[in-house]
Amino acid sequence: GVQGEVIVINDGSTDRTAEVIKQFEESHKNVKSLHHERPHGIGASFWEGAHAARGDAVTMVPGDGENDCSEILRYLRLLDCVDIVIPFVYNVQNRSLTRRLVSKSYKAIINLSFGLLLNYMNGTVIFRRSVLLSLSLRSRGFFYQTELLVQAIKRGYLYAEVPYALRQRLHGKSRALTARSFVRVFSDFVATRVA
Fold first, then answer.
1. Torsion angle (degrees, nearest 10) of CA 118, 123, 128, 133
2. Less Cβ around it within 10 Å: N or C end of the chain?
3. Which contacts of 18-25 are long-range, i.e. CB under 8 A and separated by 24 or more positions?
4. Chain-centre distance for alpha carbon 167
5. Which of 168, 175, 27, 193 has its CA nearest to residue 110?
6. Closest CA to 49 of 18, 97, 104, 9
């Protein structure tokens, strides 16, 4: 029942993603795609999609199968009252113990460093698009969502936190916990803290 569009960002994939997206675009008028020959990163992809969007609200749903779009879209009407809807995962047992410990540590560091009280920062946040366009984004990687939330909350935009369920990941592995991601997140954290 949502009047909207789906913008698929093909961030340098080497499988049949481009071909599959093309089929969806041909059969669904509300689907469009943006393609990168080489990966630009999740933050850069989100930012490009947000600027290409035409609607009043923007969210990003990763293509890894963990997120169910209906989980976040059921909160879309909250944007009548707030500028940002921030989900927090309530069924954390669907993630590994390592991932849960990293998430708790990350949450504590971010909240202490920026004077926040958020339950989760890296989910399928819904932003009012006008809020996004008033912000700037430096991070091209996994820190992008935190950077945007810190900026928006510090500017006084209103937000609501809502419970959100994740599915068990059936295929593939997250790249969020790689050494390269940690280095990039740390670098982006320092830059955001300095700013």
1. 100
2. N
3. none
4. 16
5. 193
6. 9
Amino acid in position 85? V
φ/ψ (deg, to 5) at 132: -55, -45
Residue given tokens 């932003």 in the structure block: 127
CB of 125 closer than 8 Å to CB of 149: yes
Q: Cα separation of 166 and 174, whole Å? A: 14
Whether the Cβ atoms of residue 122 and residue 69 lie closer than 8 Å to each other: no
Q: How far is it, in rounded angstroms, from Cα 57 to Cα 161?
A: 16
Comparing CA positions, the residue from 71, 77, 46, 78 lying closest to residue 59 is: 46
**Which amino acid does the sequence have at 88?**
F
Per-residue pLDDT tens over the stretch 45-102: 999 999 999 999 999 998 877 888 888 999 999 999 999 999 998 988 888 898 889 9
